[in-house]
Amino acid sequence: MKILIAGFGSIGRRHLNNLRALGETDFVLVRSHLSTLPDDDIKGLPVETNIEAALVHKPQAVVISNPSSLHLDVAIPAAKAGCSILMEKPVSHSMERIDELQSAFKKGGGQLLVGYQFRFHPGLQQIKIWLDEGFIGRPVTSRAHWGEYMPGWHPWEDYRQSYAARADLGGGVVNTLCHPLDYQRWLFGEVESLWANTSNFALGLEVDDTAEIGLHFKSGVLSSTHVDYVQRPGQHTLQIIGTEGSIVWDNATGIAKCFQPNTEQWIESSLPAGFERNFLFMDESRHFLDIVNQKVSPICSLEDGIAAIQLTEAIHRSASSGQKVQLN
After folding, report:
1. Tell me, what's the pLDDT at 169?
2. Cα-flanking dihedrals φ and ψ of residue 325, to 5°?
3. Residue 45 DSSP class
């Protein structure tokens, strides 16, 4: 199939390399030419500077990895043209024009996979199985913590000019590190209400660099979720307490553990041999190719992506107003 990749920073390159590793060879790129990385690995590939010219190449699949605020400029015309899309999270920085995107998919007939790659993590997948099978009884509370030092992500560029640090590109820690919002919703269901406090005190950016979020799920689960651009060394962990046990997961090891009170023992998830971070993206790419070939439905759909935007918007509303926010 012909695959269009829009945006060729670090994540666009990862998708290209992974799709090549899966045997794909026919690509066209849409680029702004603002990337600070070398172009050696794309020599010979057709490159366009706008989506209309790129769609003339008639791609069946589109990977959108440009800044969040620019996603819909590519996604809407591509969806109208009948393409299926793998879109980096979040779908957009706000709900503006989301109705246009929904209409475009209805017209074109393609599907959207939102790039919440942690849904492909074997540790989190095992946690979902444990929860679904009642290993810890009824889940009561959840604590998600993700802190990383954002200035160290891309040492080759000025972090203050990156999409994650700029309001006009849809940045900020709530939008950029929104994975825990998605995977907790995947594990516990819809959110009923939330409160949040955010700050840009640590790095002095124009966007939030730290957030404390309280989520109340319709299932009754209460969550405390922390994200920041500051912590060194980084930490990405999840703890779930249930009426009959507890679960912990640490992204550093990838392993999930479930405590069983009846045996007073921890049971552990297993990982594939040689497991590392790119396994998540490879599985995501395999899944996307199956979607394009109409073999499966997206594990993380447009509706899931919209729900995540509604959560991030509600977080910003709560932080600015100082009020608890109810979600429909």
Report:
1. 94
2. -115, 130
3. S
Task: Single out the residue of 184, 191, 190, 165 nearest to residue 176, CA to CA.
Answer: 165
Q: Please name the residues in contact with 128: beta carbons below 8 A apart, sequence gap of 6 or more.
A: 186, 187
- Residue 241 CA to residue 311 CA, distance in Å, equals 23
Show the tokens assigned to 176.
């950029």
DSSP string, 146-193: EE--GGGS-TTS-GGGSGGG-GGGT-SHHHHT-HHHHHHHHHH--EEE
Mean pLDDT of 35-49: 81
Give me the domains of the chain, ranges plus CATH numbers. 2-110 (3.40.50.720), 119-271+301-326 (3.30.360.10)
pLDDT confidence tier of residue 222, bands split at 50, 70 and 90: very high
Q: Determine contact, residues 121/280, Cβ cutoff 8 Å.
A: yes
The conformation of residue 259, written as its DSSP 8-state character, comes to E
- pLDDT tens, residue by residue, 304-327: 999 999 999 999 999 999 999 999
> If you write DSSP's letter for every residue of 17-29 in order, what string do you get?
HHHHHTT--EEEE
**CA atoms of 26 and 49, how far apart (whole Å):** 18
**CA-CA distance, 191 to 103, in Å (whole number)?**
25
pLDDT over 90 (residue 287): yes
User: Under DSSP, is residue 195 helix (H, G, I), strand (E, B) or coil?
Assistant: strand
Position 107 pLDDT exceeds 80: yes
Task: State the distance between the two ends of the chain, measured CA to CA, in whole angstroms.
Answer: 40
DSSP letters for 196-252: EEEE-TTT--SS--EEEEEEEETTS-EEEEEEES--SS-EEEEEEEETTEEEEEETT
Nearest of 324, 319, 308 to residue 185 by alpha carbon: 308
Sheet containing 61-64: order of strands: 47-48, 26-30, 2-6, 61-64, 84-88, 112-115
Amino acid at 114: V
Is the predicted pLDDT of residue 227 greater than 80, yes or no?
yes
Q: Is the pTM value of this prediction over 0.85?
A: yes
